Amino acid sequence: MPHDVIMPALGMTQDSGLIVAWHKKPGDAVAVGDVLFEVETDKATMEVEAAHDGFIEALLAGEGEDAPVGQVIAVISDSKPDNPTQSRLVKKPEASEPAAAPSEEVTSPGDDAPKPTPKPMPVDLRTDGRILASPKARRLALEQGLDLADLAADGVPQPYHASDIETLKARPAKATTLNTAAISQLTARVSQDGFTAFQSWLTETAAVPVETIWASFAAASLRAASKAETVNIRVDQPTLRISSFFADPDLGSLSHALPGDALQVSLILRDLTSSRITGGSSGAEDAPVLTICRDGDNFALTLTYALDLADIDTAIRLLDGFAARLDEPLRHLL
Question: Cβ distance 104 to 36 under 8 Å?
Fold first, then answer.
């Protein structure tokens, strides 16, 4: 007597289940309580046990397939089947759909021997981003700080089992373009009084915008620190969603240091003085980043740089020189 195995409802809102792995194959003996297959729902991956003793007569759904709740996905028979079968789950055609074209395979009328059905191909990577893996594989990956998505990225077929964890552990470490250990940071505080008075005077006499002043001071500081011949500055003002580029803005008068086209920048100056942010920095970029914030009566300065872009001595001279220019602007312009 055959016993149907149906896709169980493992949750109140579940309408289908994803078959992660079969633990039995056609023809295998099975006993009540044996793990028959693993199914993944929206909430978890669970093992489903056999409810009858017998033999696997047929597997009607393949690994990596979604089967509706209540759908027959396997058959257990009381006696060992002569011709156990395994096939992929096939949807019944709708009434409006045309009949499927006949197969081109030609068989002899007297050939009654069953044709072996190809084993379902493993799923390499689902388009919905889900990773097919057994509960044990997921647990081992979590305990060892591993990411099963790395196996999918390497093209290792899914679903994954505990044995695949060794493959995951043996894969080369991810390459990174910049090691976070190679990023350094310096900070400084300087009173706003000197710069505020200077900016007010310069705005009244020459109408020079503050980003031009920032760029000129930053370029002069970087040139003195690094002895660079050409210094290009990009001033970002995130609150205004504006970025301005300046080529050697320190080599002429402030009134002639005008923004230009996008350049290969030597230094990025991030102006956060019009925000409520009082400090911080971003990750390393293609150039050192000098962030300016207001913190009470002071400017809070943070220089973030990668060691392959600047050495510590240059960084110190750059930040100290910029802070000095903010503290005593007129002295450094003379």
Answer: no
Spatial separation of the C-alpha atoms in residues 27 and 30, rounded to whole Å: 9
Above pLDDT 90, what percent of the chain? 25
Tally of domains in the chain: 3
CA distances from 226 to 186, 213, 268, 331 (A): 17, 20, 15, 21
Q: Is the peptide bond before 159 cis (omega within 30 degrees of 0)?
A: yes
Q: Are residues 77 and 155 in the same domain?
A: no
The answer on 326 and 185 residing in a single domain is yes
Query: Mean per-residue pLDDT for 203-231?
Result: 88
Which of the given ranges, 199-213, 245-259, 296-310, has the highest pLDDT on average? 296-310
pLDDT of res. 124: 41
**Averaged pLDDT, 104-113:** 50
Same domain, 190 and 315: yes
- Shared domain for 157 and 291, answered yes or no, is no
Residue range(s) defining the domain that contains residue 28: 3-86
For helices 312-327 and 210-226, give the axis angle rounded to 10 degrees.
140
Give the C-alpha separation, 283 to 276, whole Å. 20
